[in-house]
Amino acid sequence: MRGYDAVWFDAGGVLVLPDPTVLAPLLAPYGGAVALDRHVRAHYAAMAVKSRAGHGEPDWSGYDEHYVRFVGVRDGLVSLAGRLLNACRVAELWRWPIPDSMAALTKLHAAGVPLAVVSNASGQIAETLERTQICQLGDGPYVPMRCIVDSHLVGVAKPDPAIFDIAAEHFDGVARSRIVYVGDSVTMDVAGATAAGLRAVLLDPYDDHAGADFERIRSVSDLLPP
């Protein structure tokens, strides 16, 4: 990818995932696979279902059903396992760092690319990203972000494009058309970022959105300068 001056990231699904080390043993009694990579894959497959259904932030019903089916939960237990997965949808579990994304962030920073995070969250995302050694606001031991915008703290959430206005205050002189925003949801991220005038890019590591009319990357490392 070329032609950008800054990169902003969603957190969930781009930098961190729902912790598969918790979800795998949780769903194993219902027939769910224990392999962590199966659960990583399940997240993106389920997000694609959520996006195609046009489900907004509050509605995770399609995600839950597809996730548990994808990891192998037995047919008669899908409803029960889905309810259990929904009950475990807490902010504190969005904490598993995506290794490729962590490595790519370091390289983007080394290349001098200004970075930020804009996330629908619950007031915890800055602390989570620092605790998991991914990044922090400003200078520190990890990758520095110009801003970390948490929807709970600012009172506006994607797909409302107003949430991106808050991040833009930290990027004076950078045209919005030159800012890439990377997310994992079509309805929340691509739609919201596009409405805000940003260059919206979907992280689609398994090609779940083949043929889509928006930009996609398989990995955050695809953003790295040549």
Biggest β-sheet description:
6 strands, parallel
How much of the residues is beta strand, in percent?
15-25%
- Can you tell me the number of structural domains? 2
Helix content: 25-40%
| Number of E-state strands | 10
**Average of the residue pLDDT scores:** 97
Could you give the distance between the termini? 9 Å
Q: What gyration radius follows from the Cα positions, in whole Å?
A: 17 Å
Main sheet strand line-up: 7-4-1-8-9-10
The CATH superfamily title of the largest domain: HAD superfamily/HAD-like
What general outline do the C-alpha atoms trace? Answer: globular
Question: How would you sum up this structure in a few lines?
Answer:
Helices cover 38% and strands 17% of the residues. The protein has helices spanning 20-27, 36-52, 61-70, 78-87, 99-110, 125-131, 151-154, 162-168, 186-195; strands at 6-9, 16-18, 94-97, 115-119, 135-137, 143-145, 148-150, 179-183, 199-203, 215-217.
Overall description:
The chain is α/β, with parallel strands linked by helices and 226 residues long. The protein folds into two domains: 6-15 and 94-223, 3-Layer(aba) Sandwich (Rossmann fold), CATH 3.40.50; 18-90. It contains nine helices and ten strands. It has helices spanning 20-27, 36-52, 61-70, 78-87, 99-110, 125-131, 151-154, 162-168, 186-195; strands spanning 6-9, 16-18, 94-97, 115-119, 135-137, 143-145, 148-150, 179-183, 199-203, 215-217. The protein has a six-stranded parallel beta sheet. The longest helix is centred in the N-terminal third of the chain and has 17 residues, at 36-52. The radius of gyration is 17 Å and the shape is globular.
